[in-house]
Predict the structure of NUDIX hydrolase.
Amino acid sequence: MAAERPEGYDPRAFEPFAVTVDLAVFTIRAGQLHTLLIRRGEPPYAGRWALPGGFLHARESAEDAARRELAEETGLPDALVADLQLEQLRTYSAPDRDPRMRVVSVAYTALVPDLPEPAASGGGDADQARWTPVATVGPLAFDHAAILADALDRTGAKLEYTCVATAFCPPEFTLGELQQVYETVWGATLDRPNFRRKVLASPGFVTPVPGASRLTGGRGKPAALYRRGPATTLHPPLLRPR
Amino acid sequence: MAAERPEGYDPRAFEPFAVTVDLAVFTIRAGQLHTLLIRRGEPPYAGRWALPGGFLHARESAEDAARRELAEETGLPDALVADLQLEQLRTYSAPDRDPRMRVVSVAYTALVPDLPEPAASGGGDADQARWTPVATVGPLAFDHAAILADALDRTGAKLEYTCVATAFCPPEFTLGELQQVYETVWGATLDRPNFRRKVLASPGFVTPVPGASRLTGGRGKPAALYRRGPATTLHPPLLRPR
DNA sequence: CCAAAAGTGTTGGTACTACACCCATGC
DNA sequence: GCATGGGTGTAGTACCAACACTTTTGG
C-alpha cells in the first residue's frame, strides 16, 4: 500500500531485488518449432541449457532490455529487432527461483522468421547459443522449463485470434507457408481450401503482392505471394481443431 | 544473458530495484463497475487516488504479496482471499514511473463480489480506501491510469472466453444476475433468451441448485439459482456484440 | 387483471466442414 | 503422362441472432 512506498533511497524501506528479462524466442526451421537456448558456462546450472536473458540496465524498461538481449543473442541488426514481434508473457517471482539471490524475471515471447544459427559468442562465458527443436528440449536451468511451457501455450492461443503467425514468415510468403506455421505450432493438420478462405476473409491479415509467385516444393503450381497486412487481431478467429 | 548473472551478492553485479504489486480490484455495485482506490497521504501524488498495492516482502512471491495486500485493503478474511480470482496482468517497468527511485511493479487483476465498503484504515497514512465507479475515476498517481485501462481491457476480453464472470457474483446467483455482469462490464445489452442458452450449453460454467429460486426485482417469476461450475474456460466463447 | 421478470420455441440467415474438382509446373 | 502443390466450387450442417410467446410472481 502507499504507506509503505519509500520516501527516498533509504535502503531499509524496501527489499532489494535483481530484475531480469528472459526470452522465449521461437522460429520454424525445417517444419519444426525451434527455440533459442544458450548453454550456461558458470554455476549454478553450469553446462545446462537456459533461455537467453539478462539484467535490466539502470535506466531501461523491461521491453528495451528484452530487445537489447534479443539483438545480442540473435546477432540481428538493431533496426530489424526494433519491429520484431515481442510480447510480455508474465513475471516470475518465486523466492527460490534463483539459488543465489532474489531475482524477479519478466519473461517475453519473441516470434522470428528462420534465421541463421547465432554466431558463437567470441570467448564469452556462455559457451554456445543454439536453435533447438522444442520437442527435444531437455531439463533447463532455473524455472525456464515452466517459462517455455507457458510461452508455448500462449503462442498457440495467440495464433487463434491475432495475426502474429506472419512473424514466423519472411517478408513475402505463400499461404501454404503460413498454413505450415499453424500446423507446426498446433501440431495439427488443417484443410487447405478452408484455411485459405479464412485468411483471405480476415481483413488486413495479409495483402497480396500483385503478379508475384514462387515455387515451393520444386514442383507444382507456383504460389501467389503475400505480405503481412496492417491488422493485428483476427476477426473472426481461426480456431484450432478440437 | 547468463554471463551477466551475478555469481553472489556482489552489489556491483546488478542494479538494485524495488519491486511492488499493484491491484486493479473490480466489483459490481448497483449495476456499475467499481474499482478499489486508496487516497495517498504522502508525496509524491499526496491527495491523489491510486491503486492499492505495496512492496514484496523478502521471501514472498508477487502473487502472495498481491493476496496479502488484497486482504489488507478489503478487510476480507485470509481464507476467503485465498480462493478469489486473481490474475497477473502485466509488469510495468518504465524507468521514470516512480519519481523517487526505480520501482518495477507487477500488476494483478482481482474480481470480487459486492463487498462492504473497506474499513477506514485506523490511523494509517493512506487516509482512505473507497469503491469508485470506473466511469468517474479521475487522474491517478504514477502510471495507475494506464494499469487500470489495461485491466479493464483484459477483464472485458476474459469474459468472452473464460468463466470468470461468476467471480463477480455471490455463491448462489441467477442467470439474470450473471447477464448483468456481462452487460455492465461490456457496456452492452444482451438478448436474454440467447444468453441463457449459451451459458447453459457451456459445460461446467454453472451448475443448478435444485429446487432453489429467488425473487429479483420484487416482482416477476422467481429465478432458478446456480453456482459456479468446475470449468474455467468457455467453449464456445461468449462473444461481445460487435 | 396488469406489470414485470423468468423461461421456451421458432425461424431465417450465416458460417463453417468436408469434400470434389480444376490449374500450373517439374520430371 | 503423372506426381505435386496451388487454387475454386459446393452441398450439408451446425450454429446463432432476433423475436414471438408462455409462465409465475406481486400489487
